[in-house]
Amino acid sequence: MGKPHFASAVSEGIQNLDQYGYTVHENFLPTAEVQTLRSRLVEQAEQECEAGVATLANGGHAAGKYVGRPKSGTVPTFQSVDFLPNKGRPFLDLLHKPVIHEYAAHLFRGEPYNLASEAGVILRRGGTAQVLHADQQAIPLVLDRPVMFVMMVCLSDFTPDMGATEVVPGSHRFPAPDLQRSPEEQVAERDAEFMPITAPAGSVALWESRTWHRQGTSTSDQDRISIGCAWALHFIKPQTFFPAVVHDDVYDTLSDEDKRVLGFEVVREYAGAIGPRYRGDRRANLNVSYPYIPELKPGARA
Predict the structure, then answer these.
(1) Residue 58: other Cβ atoms inside 10 A
(2) Alpha-carbon span 207 to 135, nearest angstrom
(3) Model confidence at 229: pLDDT above 60
(4) pLDDT digits (tens, 9 = 90+) for 235-263
(5) Under 8 Å between Cβ of 109 and 145
(6) How many angstroms separate the CA atoms of 98 and 105, rounded?
(7) Which residues make Cβ contacts (< 8 Å) with residue 269, sequence separation at least 6?
(8) 0.70 cut: is pTM over it?
(9) Fewer CB within 10 A of the end CB, N or C, for the chain?
(10) How many other CB atoms are there within 10 angstroms of residue 34's CB atom?
(11) For residue range 131-182, what is the model confidence (pLDDT) as tens digits?
């Protein structure tokens, strides 16, 4: 088993993405920013548990997932904190890092794109491996390019025993894995290998949507803490439709650039139109304005 393909510059990372389907960009965040994001994420996670609205699991990423408080006498092995743009300005600021958009410009060949999801993940001892998959296999088309990429921001160190994400280098050139077959057999058949993403806090791992990967199994007493963001071409239905999800009080604070990355922009007069929900609705597209027009019938008063 080799070492992760690190990059200290975007040009190196692009070479890794093209050759291996993933890269680890070092020193993505300074220590102070890591601490700010981590403390806000952990605080939010704790408060969601206390309020009984946490997304939890005892086992793998999807195994036994439930919403509520931790079950009595247990420490959940997995917790996700979803819809992060609603949960603190640091999560919005993270989306504007120039490095992200340099990678996006390359992977998407200059096509418009927007945020598809942003969620925090806390993995603890006992968290089990995900099914081996490629994010793009949810789309029933065979394409010569990725339609999404994922960035996993390390807010703690990532080590194999902490359930670090495992990728299969070069698998972006393979057909999608069979979800019903043994991952180890499929990887061995292609003379490939699993590569656990071992990285220090402050790094970001990026992989494109055709790359085979899975969450690893955690046997460590150290929590693995991260923020996962998916970015998608503008015409791909995102995991989270932020124009509908963002709270009104958060919407009122958004800059034009916030709105652009969250998908409030109509692209080429083709996709993403937001019509007013009621007269005086403040929520609207960044670059197009539509009037409020309800159902009209002859004789009805204006």
Answers:
(1) 19
(2) 10
(3) yes
(4) 999 999 999 999 999 999 999 999 999 99
(5) yes
(6) 11
(7) 288
(8) yes
(9) C
(10) 20
(11) 999 999 989 888 999 999 999 999 999 999 999 999 999 999 999 999 999 9
> How wide is the angle at C-alpha 59 spanned by C-alphas 58 and 62, nearest 5°?
100
Q: Is the dihedral of CA 201, 27, 31, 261 positive or negative?
A: negative
Is residue 206 a contact partner of residue 17, using CB atoms and an 8 Å limit? yes
Tokens found for residue 192 = 């490939």
**3-state helix/strand/coil string of the chain:** CCCCCEECCHHHHHHHHHHHCEEEECCCCCHHHHHHHHHHHHHHHHHHHHHCCEEEECCCCCCCCEEECCCCCCCCCEEEECCHHHCCHHHHHHHHCHHHHHHHHHHCCCCCEEEEEEEEEEECCCCCCCCCECHHHHCCCCCCCCCEEEEEEECCCECCCECCCEECCCHHHCCCCCCCCCHHHHHHHCCCCCEECCECCCCEEEEECCCCEECCCECCCCCEEEEEEEEEECCCCCCCCHHHHCCHHHHCCCCHHHHHHHCCCCECCCECCCCCCCCCCCCCCCCCCCCCCCCCCCCCCC
Q: Give Rg (Cα) of the chain.
A: 20
Burial of residue 59 (CB within 10 Å: 0-12, 13-18, 19+) is: middle
